[in-house]
Amino acid sequence: MTRDRQLPRAAVISRHLHSTTSPREERIPWAAIAGIIATVTVFALAQGLTYPLLSFILDRQGTTAGLIGFSAAMTPLGFIVSAPFIPALARRVGAARLAVLCSIMAALTLTAIAWAQDIWAWMALRFLLGFFANPLSVVSETWLITITPAPRRGRIMGLYSSIVSGGFAIGPLSLGLVGTQGWPPFMIGIVAFLLCGLILFVVVPRLPKMPLEGEATSVGGFVAMAPLLLFAVFAAAAFEQTLLSLFAVYGAALGSAEERIASLITCFVAGNAVLQILLGRVAERFGSTRTMSFCALASLAGCLVLSSIFNSWLIWPLVFVWGGVSFGLYTMALIQLGERFTGQALIAGNAAFAFVWGVGGVMGSPATGLAMQLIGNHGLPSSLGLLCCLLAVFLTAERRRV
């Protein structure tokens, strides 16, 4: 303090700012962040390819929209069943070892799906695909939130979500290059899962350990701690899973070719990739809760105008923005998770996110498929619009209560 009094005030402020920011910047493990994000990118590519590919195949076989939706729900059902086991497995086996093992098992499962080409065999195999793929997402998000400094959380989580979305966009786009027939599209997903394991194996020495401080929290316990946060995850999951699995059916009924539908799905996911960093910056300035409310209302607006402009050029900017704001719900939930929880509660929170994401996928696709059978193709935007409306109402009520 004596030395500080001898310095000009501006110099003292400058020195203190440097001392409080520079060490934090130096402690950010950028190599670990790069490894985590690279892993998630190829994981998302495999996931983004699988949903529309299998939907196209089933649609060509004359499968009903309801059964296609039920088949798609098997993967998120695997998320649900695996989620409660992830925190304990990460502690016992090791997070990195668990993720590498699961990437190998996911590749083998996708190989079996390509070999079987039967909807009833696919039910069990798609469940296993979700079961093995889920730990990759949970482990990577826990690592990333743990090592991200609070002042940069919005931007870094936005970057993370953008790259995840970019991987999803590359998946459907690859179908336009290799088609939906035979082994080539499946091989892209198989290689992607194996690449996940290889990247993790290379960067394991740089990855931090899972945070273990605090009381042990179960997935069910976390659900009671943050119900509205998890409902936002549910809405984002139902929205994305439904679009990936049933947009092909919706577009085909309106007379669009498979190539155009695949391109629209790519545009939808590209909106995620481009807009998440922007939404993260908005959350840093205006708060993640307000930004989440905006995303819910914007998603609802997209549902209301979808059918009226589907065959016009306006569909392209619509699905682009629609994709960004709908997935933005999940980005805002991740930001709030990092703001509110640490240690074992953070691990349980990420596992609960995976659990609820699976529930959203399981309920969203079949419910929307059934709605499409009962009231026609408008059942898709109507179902998703109702979900976004409920979230917006709950968020408004929560803000007024606080």
UniProtKB/TrEMBL annotation:
Membrane topology: Multi-pass membrane protein
Source organism per UniProt: Sinorhizobium glycinis
Taxonomy of the source species: Bacteria, Pseudomonadati, Pseudomonadota, Alphaproteobacteria, Hyphomicrobiales
Broad class of where this protein is predominantly found: membrane
Subcellular location: Cell membrane
Residues annotated as domain Major facilitator superfamily (MFS) profile: 27-400
GO molecular function: transmembrane transporter activity
Record keyword Transport present: yes
Keywords: Cell membrane, Membrane, Transmembrane, Transmembrane helix, Transport
Name of this chain's protein: Major facilitator superfamily (MFS) profile domain-containing protein
Keyword DNA damage appears in the UniProt entry: no
UniProt cross-references to Pfam families, sorted A to Z: MFS_1
Residue spans crossing the bilayer: 28-46, 66-86, 98-117, 123-145, 157-177, 183-204, 216-239, 261-279, 291-309, 315-335, 347-367, 379-397
GO cellular component: plasma membrane
